[in-house]
Structures are given as C-alpha cells and as structure tokens.
C-alpha cells in the first residue's frame, strides 16, 4: 500500500486528492510542510459534520449568543470592506481583480516572497491600496470587541492583514492573525523589527522602505576599496583587462536591507501559533463558531469548521452563500447590518457611528433545508 513515505505517494498529492487547494505559500515547500494540512484534510473527510437541525433562524443565533461562553470567530476581508479596504478575491472589485486589470497575469506574484526579494519596488508600488487606516474600524469589529467585553470571545482567527482588529481593541491573547499583518515590519537583511506604521509613509509614496539600523551601521563604517576575491589558495584571481578597467578604484558600497511588512507572503509558512492554538487549546473548549466575511476557500483556515467537534453550532455571516461547509445558520447580507440586528435580538447594545440610530431590518428565511436567511435594511418610506 502506498503511503506518504514512498516515492510514489506524497503528502502534497494526498492533499490534492482530498480536494484541498494548495496555498501558494506552500507551493515550494518540502513534503514535510504539507503534513499539518494533510492532517486537517483527512480529519475533514472523516468528520464532515452534518447540519444541526435544531438551529435555523436569526433568533436561534441570538439565543446562542446569549447562552454560549467560548465563541470562536473566524473573519475575512468582508468585514473590512465598508472601510474602503478591498478584499482580495471578489470578482471585479477585489484587489487581485484590480491587479489583473492593470496587466498582471498572476496577481499573487505581487505577494511572492522571492519576487519581493528580487524587486521590492513592485510590491511598494501597489501596496498603498491595502494600507490600513489606524483610526477606523467597522461595526463588525465592534461586535467582536463586544463579545470580548462580555467575556465570551475565545479566539478571533482573522485572515485579514490590516490589523484593524487590534486597533478595535481585540487583545493580543485573543487574536490569531493567520496570514500575519501590517502590525510590524522586518528588515530582510538584519531582521530588525519596527512598528508597521513606521513604513506607511514609504508605502504610500511607493518607495521601498530602507532599514534604519542597516543605514546607521553602514554610516558608522568607512567605505572600503573593492578587493579581488581569493581563488581559494591564498592568491588572488587574475582579472581580465576589461574587469581591471571597469573596477579599478571602485568601492564596495553596502546597501541597507528593505523593510517587509510582516504579512505572510506566498512562499512563507503560516505562524505556528495558528496550528498550536487551534488543536491544543480551542478545539476542546469552543462552544459556538461564528464565521464572517469570508468564502472559506483558502486552506488551512477553510478546514477549521470540519476540524471542530460536530456538536458545536456554527453560524455563517456574509453576502453570498457557500456550499462546501454545512453551517447551521446562514445569515446572508452586509456583515455590519447582520451583526447590528443580531446584537439587538440578543438584547445587547452595539454602538458605532456607522450604525444609524434608526435602522429597520428585514430578515427572511429563504431556504429552510439549508437554513439560509437573507438580512437587509428596509427601504425608507417615501
């Protein structure tokens, strides 16, 4: 029988066989790098959860909010779009779609770590559109903060890199930034780390940010004339006359490293705390899951719902339905509108300047089999 230790069958091939879309950051990984992802995929198939029949409506969701005390929240770009921060994959409006319109055949290459090291100018020329505003967050972020304030938030797993959750007040110990974030930036040469906002001006100016520590170190050392390299036996290599004419009197001029925001680029592994937190702490403690603003297409985050115990209720909030995961309650609409109505029905006060003082909301159960309700603001009377 073939197994992952044979040459014929690999962990990567098995992931594909289980229908897992391989993340670009794993494309160049050794086979061992696929083991955790394969484990999640196998667990998903063995434990594909059925929909719980006792939960169906918005009122059921509100009751669960009141009752449960260890709520896992999984979020994607859809919770930040009302701030003007584009998501990545939406057709026509997503960041990748806009890059295609600009002529990039493979928009993901802008976030490829090898491409960044070769030419950081490409990333810096385009990243201004996704730099977050540190002073703003949405009603949905405020809703997550409300769960925390009520001591009900177990963990917020966010796929977003904007770091808005942290600025909205979600505590570090409650937040797993699955794909990294703009919170910090690190020098690719000396690994010096700075707050992310230190490079925001450079990003907005479309100019690669150079490492301040590298520049200080370079400034403190005299520039030296270039020496001919040793050929390995103590003597110097003989140079051609062309090389002599071009390089005699030349100087080695050290270059500072380039600062990279600590978002996870393709070609980099996810932080270990994602897997450790999920399997060692949250799996056995969670009593309610709320997924918001994400299509749940990218592994390993997409594997979380089927990795958790089947009896734990799961609520899905987003504009469009998904069909590869059996959520118990599906509330389709603008995330900000849905959470405001959900909080109201739970008897909670959710205050945010983006929530109108008077907002009439229509909720309609449109699919009783798949437990789908649509949620939308009622048009104002003429």
Automatic annotation (TrEMBL):
Family (UniProt): Belongs to the sirtuin family. Class I subfamily.
GO MF annotations, alphabetized: histone H4K16 deacetylase activity, NAD-dependent; metal ion binding; NAD+ binding
Pfam family, one: SIR2
Residue ranges, compositional bias (Basic residues): 222-239
Gene Ontology CC terms: nucleus
Keyword Hydrolase among record annotations: no
Domain of life: Eukaryota
Residue intervals passing through the bilayer: none
Cofactor: Zn(2+)
InterPro entries membership: DHS-like_NAD/FAD-binding_dom, NAD-dep_sirtuin_deacylases, Sirtuin, Sirtuin_cat_small_dom_sf, Ssirtuin_cat_dom
Keywords: Metal-binding, NAD, Transferase, Zinc
UniProt-annotated stretches for the region Disordered: 220-258
Full protein name: SIR2, NAD-dependent protein deacetylase, SIR2 family
């Amino acid at each position: 029988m073939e197994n992952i230790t044979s040459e014929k069958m690999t962990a990567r091939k098995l992931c594909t066989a289980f229908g897992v879309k391989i993340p670009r950051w794993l494309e160049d990984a050794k086979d061992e790098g696929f083991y955790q992802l394969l484990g999640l995929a196998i667990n998903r198939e063995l434990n594909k959860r059925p929909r719980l029949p006792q939960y169906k409506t918005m009122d059921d969701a509100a009751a669960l909010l009141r009752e449960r005390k260890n709520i896992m929240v999984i979020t994607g770009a859809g919770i930040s779009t009302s701030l003007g921060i584009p998501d990545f994959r939406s057709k026509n409006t997503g960041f990748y779609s806009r890059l295609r319109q600009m002529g990039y055949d493979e928009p993901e290459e802008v976030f490829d770590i090898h491409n960044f090291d070769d030419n950081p100018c490409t990333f810096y020329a385009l990243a201004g559109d996704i730099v977050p505003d540190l002073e703003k967050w949405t009603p949905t972020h405020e809703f997550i903060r409300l769960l925390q304030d009520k001591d009900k938030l177990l963990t917020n797993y966010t796929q977003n890199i904007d770091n808005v959750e942290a600025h909205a007040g979600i505590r570090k110990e409650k937040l797993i930034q699955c794909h990294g974030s703009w919170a910090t930036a690190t020098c690719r040469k000396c690994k010096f780390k700075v707050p992310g906002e230190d490079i925001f001006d450079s990003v907005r100016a479309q100019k690669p940010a150079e490492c301040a520590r590298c520049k200080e170190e370079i400034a403190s050392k005299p520039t030296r004339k270039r020496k001919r390299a040793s050929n390995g036996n103590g003597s110097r290599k003989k140079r051609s006359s062309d090389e002599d004419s071009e390089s005699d009197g030349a100087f080695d001029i050290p270059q500072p490293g380039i600062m990279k925001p600590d978002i996870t680029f393709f070609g980099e592994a996810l932080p270990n705390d994602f897997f450790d937190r999920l399997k060692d702490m949250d799996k056995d403690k969670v009593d309610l899951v709320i997924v918001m603003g994400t299509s749940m297409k990218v592994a390993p985050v997409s594997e979380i719902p089927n990795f958790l115990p089947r009896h734990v209720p799961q609520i899905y909030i987003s504009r469009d339905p998904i069909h590869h995961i059996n959520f118990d309650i599906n509330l389709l609409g603008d995330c900000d509108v849905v959470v405001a109505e959900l909080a109201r029905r739970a008897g909670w006060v959710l205050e945010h300047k983006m929530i109108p003082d008077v907002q009439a909301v229509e909720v309609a159960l449109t699919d009783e089999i798949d437990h789908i309700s649509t949620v939308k603001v009622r048009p104002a009377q003429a």
